[in-house]
Protein 1
Amino acid sequence: MTVVDGAIRIGELARRTGVSPELLRAWEQRYGLLLPSRSPGGFRLYSVADEDRIRAMTRLIGDGLSAAQAARQALTADGGQPAIEAPLVDQLADQLRTALDSFDGTGAHASFDRLLASVSLEVVLADVLVPYLRDLGDRWVAGRATVAQEHFASNLIRGRLLALARDWDAGDGPSLLLACLPGEAHDLGLIMFGILTSRRGWRITFLGADTPLDTLHASIRNIQPALTVLVASTPSLLAAHAHDLRRLTSLTRTAIAGVTDAQAVSEVGATALPGDIVQAATAIVP
């Protein structure tokens, strides 16, 4: 590929667009959103068209589209082709949803296996499982999904995720402690986050849902993690535990997932993580 006039390296692209280099690389790998040329020295160089697609994608995500949908639209508008065959992913996601809603464990496992064989793990987690679980929760609230369906799907997905999480505490990387605040029962997203971060070199200690604060304090003193990530789905949870959270954040560097209100999070001494699970995984550094 020839070098494009005016092409820039990824650091400058990140500065211009406000998107981290890690997330730019993830979007390039997951969606084929960037089409770099190569310098004589082998460095990736990005064009004005790449910059335009990044700006379009961030705008579309801001409008409420998922990362996968935004990437497809940004590429289609530019005349490009997504790296992922959307019909295949959508078809496999629909098969998984149908199997889970029908209590068909064998079919759900087969669909899960086909997804893992067809696309990257990041796509399976961020573009299939996260949207499915959100939709399932919305349907349950609206009375269009039963408690039995929600429990069956959650338990099957949990089993598959924990199998992927095997040995995520091995190695000599920095220690990452993951837990949900008291009153927060939803930990599947946190398991997915742990899987993604473990593949980026973190050593995971996972405490799970509804973790008592005294247990968190004891674990932090014992493990001395490089970072603690807590889940709270609503600002009210932060407010309810504000005093204890300030004590906790004095002991460890802390980030909050779920609540994206940076001001509310900063008031307890923590940092808010991005809502996109892959972006959140790439945002943390030792």
Protein 2
Amino acid sequence: MTDFFEPASPDLAALPRPPLGYLMAVAGAALFAINGTVSKVMLRAGLAPGQLTEFRSTAAFVLLLVGVIAVGQRKRLHVRRSELPLLALFGAAGFTFVQWCYFVALVRLPVGIALIIEYLAPVLVTLYARVVLKEQVRARMWLGLVLALAGLSTIAQVWGGSAPSPVGLLAGLGAAVSLSTYYIVGERLLKTRDAISLTTWGFGCSAAVCAVLAPWWNFPFGVLSHAATLTAFHDSISAPVWLLGVELALLGTVAPFLLVVGCLRHLRASQAGIVGMTEPVLAAIVAFVVLGESLSPVQLIGGAIVLTAVVLAQSAR
């Protein structure tokens, strides 16, 4: 467990066990994919996007905080005053607004489409690196950007017809912008902090922001005792919302994060990122099986174009 607390090393040439790394990356993507459907079920049960964001951030913060202390790494949680502004931005943009925008999109869009739009973040990060940081990137970045716009236009069906919810599309784009901020600010903070303590404080800052915007005494705790229907095909299959919340915090947040961080000990970041592209695909499959959500042929084509653009962006920087 201790190696999770070491700052990221720029030298990833030595890849000890790539098969294990790929297995961890796919497992993490699968858990994140299932989390999309679980989140949508909880939203349908009566929680608002902001309330679900508050629940997830606070639960993840408590679990990570207890875990860090339990393994004797309390000193890793020390925060320098100079880090506070970036940590606040990291938590607010990278955790609060990513989740809130994603949950708003989930209410109005199929799970797979909401995730695909959010996954435009690597394209935005690469564009930021080229335009703002003046980094040299491969020419394929521009092709990736064109494909991303084409894929998004296809999903949105800008030419008319049965277009998805504009609010859902804007929320998905908001999640992509917030996620790109998470990547950019997180990359800077990881030069001096380890990934686990950074994520712990990221969720902590997010929990604090949520508590200010929506005080806990207004949280609808009664909803947690409600029974939520788990599938669109059988109303009798249900589970209490609090149990889904436990899954959301443990298997939908902490466990996949540890798997993704762990896989970086065996894979390059670009390899892990490309494997992560399985998440929207798996999420769409889970949503189809559980919620009965299906994507039109046009949406499938648009999604494939966007994922191709993200792969190009991952390999362009």
Protein 3
Amino acid sequence: MKVRRRDFLKLGAATAGMVVGATAGPTPVRAADPNRERCKAMLFDATRCIGCRACQTACRDGFGMSPTRDGDELYDQPTGLSTTCPCIIQEYRSEDGEEWSFIKRQCMHCLDPGCASACLVNALERTPDGAVVYDVDKCIGCRYCMIACPFDVPTFEYDKPVPSIRKCTFCFVTSEGNVPRCVARCPTAAMQFGDRAELLREARSRIHEEPDRYVDHIYGEHEAGGTAALYLAGVSFDKLGFPANLSDRPIPDLTKTFLNSVPLVIILWAAFGTGLHRFVQRREAGLEEVAEEVETGP
């Protein structure tokens, strides 16, 4: 049976139409979760941080990723989030030296996490307590979570034969005292851990009582739909490396239609590839038949 060129083009057009139909149309409206803000959270006050990096060391200890020592020198000291450092203290200093601050970078544990929405196999999910956790046994290494995160948090073990994603897990569930290791280790109480609503009230109180000390902004209260990692600082957050002008809308609201179409596109593309392969095989078989007829003659 021969497949005509016209039939092949129809197959391609039908496949393209199905893809367009799958990706077009209005974005579905998600029902708001009334309990999503009733979770645990961490408040980091940058004006109280002294840059000792005890929190960073505690985090790496918990993950079994402590830096190694060669005599009196430590090496493997990252300057940003990495697969061996899920949280890090960074320093900001203006060119004239008038402004400076330490800031803690880690997973923001979004109330509506884009990484979990992007994951095709539910390897990332938000727990009722507010932590966004990762299941290495489910992960297929697609790295869509890295693309979906507006804070550029998840990192990938490119150097390992069986790689996985690394990020802060908000380890209060597995830590002593039911607080994250970083919070427990901080010597200046730059971090507090508790109910999100109470921490927001505490943050607003500090800004009201000391307006000259703080920027009038609680970072994470509304960004990307709200996060469980909340920040106070005396320097504007865009200078501290946080995404500026981030929408208050949850990331899944902006990406859900596209992300829902990804598995379908993969399936349709595979079907199209299979059809193309069969078309080529049948065409070659037809050419062989013609060649045989020419050789044998009438």
Protein 4
Amino acid sequence: MMVPSLVVVADAATRSAFTRQLSVGLAVLLIVAYGLGLLFSLKTHRAEFAGAHHDEEGETPWPLGLALATLAGVTVLVALVSEIFVESVQKAAEAFGMTPAFVGFIVVALVGGAAEMASAFSGARKNRLDLSVGIALGSAAQIALFVAPVLVLLSYVIGPTPMDLQFWPGAVVMVLIATLTAAFITVGGRSAWFVGVLLLMVYLIFAMTLYLLPPQVQ
């Protein structure tokens, strides 16, 4: 997803067309990769992604049909509530003079992912580290591999102008640092409270930088 931002085109006249064509091609590849990833984790290699069982005493599994219907209904409700909440919070943040980068990277991201974060926190409190990390990383992967590419493709149909995957340099650096940090933290399979403190420090450094960032460099 970062490739269009890292590739430099010398001829400014062809830069826009090149970036849009590259973004469309990469969007298709990312969606294909996301679909194959779901097939890999849910079908062909499902056992490798199964976490430890933590069934509570007396707990009975839901019927598949009821579980799917409940999941679909809750997903629709969460999406509606998040959309209303994000729009309200975004307007309030702009009224307080927050930069667009801070609103997009911090405020909207926190509010829009509140339901997923609540599930991740619940899993962490129950010592379900596999579930908690899986929710957090799965959400980020879904945004990068599915949501962003779909928005690029839909922008040619319903958007006022085509969208591309070119980000300003500061965003590229932050995404790369966040990706490397997540990889280093999760590769060991264990955690401690100070590791969480360091992760929060990285996040707060990004938040402070975006909050103080002049609008003209975003």
